[in-house]
Write a structure and sequence with these properties.
Low-confidence stretches: none
Mean pLDDT: 88
InterPro entries: P-loop_NTPase, RapZ-like, RapZ-like_N, RapZ_C
Largest sheet: 5 strands, parallel
Number of strands: 9
Keywords: ATP-binding, GTP-binding, Nucleotide-binding
Distance between the termini: 61 Å
Domain RapZ-like N-terminal: 1-154
CATH class of the largest domain: Alpha Beta
Domain RapZ C-terminal: 164-283
Strand order of the largest sheet: 2-3-1-4-5
Strand content: 15-25%
Protein name: UPF0042 nucleotide-binding protein
Amino acid sequence: MRLIIVTGMSGAGKSTALKMLEDAGYFCVDNLPIQLIPKFAELLNVPNAEYDKAALGIDVRGGQAFEELDETLQQMKERRIPYEILFLDAADDVLVKRYKETRRSHPLAGDGRVDKGIAKERTKLEYVKKNARYIIDTSRMLTRELNQELGKIFIDGKVFKNIYITILSFGFKYGIPADADLVMDVRFLPNPYYIEELRPQSGNDKPVRDYVMDNDKAKEFLAKFIDMVDFLIPNYILEGKHQLVIAVGCTGGQHRSVTLANELYKYLENKEDYGIKIEHRDIPKDSITKAR
C-alpha cells in the first residue's frame, strides 16, 4: 500500500497534484478530517484491499483540527502505517499574485490582507514541511511541468532531490532577473551580433551555437561553469533550497546567453535527480527591438 499525504501552501498546486495522482490510478480524497486519517490508512493497509495506492489532500481548511496533524502522523509512525508527504510550496509574492488573479481570499486571511494569511499558514505548516519526503516549489512551474515532475516521482519511480532548477537566458539591457540565484555574464565571448548572417538568428540555431562555442575560451568557461554548478547544487539541497534559478546573460539575450544556457541544460537534463527546465526570456524582445 502506498499512501501519499498531499499538502502545502494554499495556491501552490495541491488540487493539480491530486488530479494528476487520480489520473495515475490513485484513490484520492481531499480535505479528509484529520482524526480520520489513521482509520482511512488502516482500511487501505490490509491484504487484498481494493486500492493499493491512495492520496489524501490535507490543508489549513481543517481549522483547529489541523493542529492535531503532527500528533496524528506520529501515531501512524508508532503503528507502522506507511505514508509519504508531498509538500507543494511557492514564493510568497507568487502566491499573492495567484490569489489576485483568481480573486480568491486566503483561508487564513479573514478580512485582512492575503500576505498576512500566507504568513500564518507558513507557521502552521512548518512541522509538516520539515517531515515531507517530497517538496516541490511551483513558483516558476506551469501546470504541465508540475504534472511532469509528479509523474517522475509517483509513476516512473525516479529519484527526486527536492529541487527544481530553472536555467534562464537573458539580456542585460533588459535587466537582471529579479529571482535569479546565480547570475553568469557571458558578454566576454565572441558576439554573433556582428556577423550579418547570424544577427537575426538565436543561440537555438546551430550556426550561432557553433560560432559561440568554436573557441577554447568558450569551451573552458563551460567546463568551469558546469564544475561550479555541480558543486553548488548538492550544497543548496543540504541548505533546504527547493527552487534554483541559474541566469545566463549577454547584451541582448539572443545569442551568447542562449547558447551557454542550452549547453548547461543539455548537461543537467541527463541528471535524473533534478527537476529542470529552460527559459529564454529575451529572444522575442530583442527580435522586436531589432525589427523597429
